């Protein structure tokens, strides 16, 4: 059974994602110490059905939610119900995978224009003149 669509061609099955209900932290109401409404999502990158290029990019991606063993752990406790927190965790997993596989645009070196260089130097000389006027006046 498919659980999460990463792209049109790449999908994650329900056996790849593990949910563990936990108690939410922080202040709460009557049910805060009784109901496990927060959730830990665990996703093992090595065991997943992702393409090898995706796995490599994820394992090299710098994010605190990816531990040394190659397991993504996402804690969701934003909402009051377990179902909403599961959906939130799945959405955050999808965003993390999409961010990791996104290709960064190559940087190109550029030069400042002659006009901008001239304006910068003119601004500096004007600032210097303004500061020079703050000196003590010699009678």
From TrEMBL:
Q: Which residues form a coiled coil?
A: none
Query: Domain Prokaryotic-type class I peptide chain release factors spans what residues?
Result: 23-39
Q: Which GO terms describe its molecular function?
A: peptidyl-tRNA hydrolase activity; ribosome binding; translation release factor activity
The record, for InterPro entries, names: Pep_chain_release_fac_I (IPR000352), Pep_chain_release_fac_I_sf (IPR045853)
- SUPFAM superfamilies associated with the record: Release factor
Q: Which Gene3D superfamilies match?
A: 3.30.160.20
Q: From which domain of life does this come?
A: Bacteria
Q: Where is this region: Disordered?
A: 104-139
Q: Which stretches does UniProt call biased (Basic residues)?
A: 127-139
GO annotation, biological process: rescue of stalled ribosome
Q: Which family does it belong to?
A: Belongs to the prokaryotic/mitochondrial release factor family.
The name of this protein is Prokaryotic-type class I peptide chain release factors domain-containing protein
Native species of this protein? Nitrincola lacisaponensis
């Amino acid at each position: 059974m498919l659980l999460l669509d990463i792209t049109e061609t790449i999908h994650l099955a329900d056996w790849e994602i593990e949910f563990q209900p936990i108690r939410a932290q922080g202040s709460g109401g009557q049910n805060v110490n009784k109901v496990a409404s927060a959730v830990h999502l665990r996703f093992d990158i090595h065991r997943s059905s992702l393409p090898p290029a995706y796995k490599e990019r994820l394992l090299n991606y710098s994010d605190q939610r990816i531990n040394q063993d190659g397991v993504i752990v996402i804690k969701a406790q934003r909402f009051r119900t377990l179902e909403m927190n599961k959906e939130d965790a799945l959405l955050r997993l999808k965003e993390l995978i999409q961010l990791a596989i996104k290709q960064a645009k190559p940087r190109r070196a550029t030069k400042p224009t002659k006009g901008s260089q001239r304006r910068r130097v003119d601004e500096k000389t004007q600032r210097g003149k303004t500061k020079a006027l703050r000196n003590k006046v010699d009678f």
